[in-house]
User: Fold this.
Amino acid sequence: MGDFLILLHSISTDLSKEDLDHLKFLCCGIISKRKLENVKSGTDLFSILLEQQEISNGKVEFLLKMLKSLKRGDLVERLERFVENGPDDAAELPEPQEREQLKTAFLVISENVARNWKMLMRRLGVSEARLEGIMVAYPNNLQEQIIQGLRVWQKSQGKNAKVLHLLQALQDCQMKLVAELVEAKLSSPQV
Assistant:
């Protein structure tokens, strides 16, 4: 339960006042008006939901619906990642140098791949459902959609996520110029 509480605290710190007001509204039928009036933070709200057993480590559907209604894709992804991978999936991450290279490659790809980004993601094995979720979470930000798609791919690959695989997928999708830009950026000395 401790890891779930840490997750809730993390989500709480990222909620704006407006987000909190929306969440309180969504809880009107579940939490009494008097209790809602005393809610001043996300942790206050989550404490009541935990107490009333509306959410728990194994019961996150209600919380997920609320975060989706806020259109906070970042928080939805954080919760989904926790549910999918558990609290500590650091052992599945690529090595630090590879992570830095992937981060650089993600940035170059997001800046240079346009509307055909879904073709690249499909080539990398990202499911249609995940692509649809990304588009819903970030409807007006193509660059963020690409970054999130690449993160989903990286997460699915764990330690096997390599820049080499990205370069091959770019080549396979006839995005040779982008592959060359990634290689050039990675081979240039860091400023």
In short: The mean pLDDT is 87. DSSP finds twelve helices and no strands in the chain. The radius of gyration is 19 Å. The chain has two domains: 2-88, 93-187.
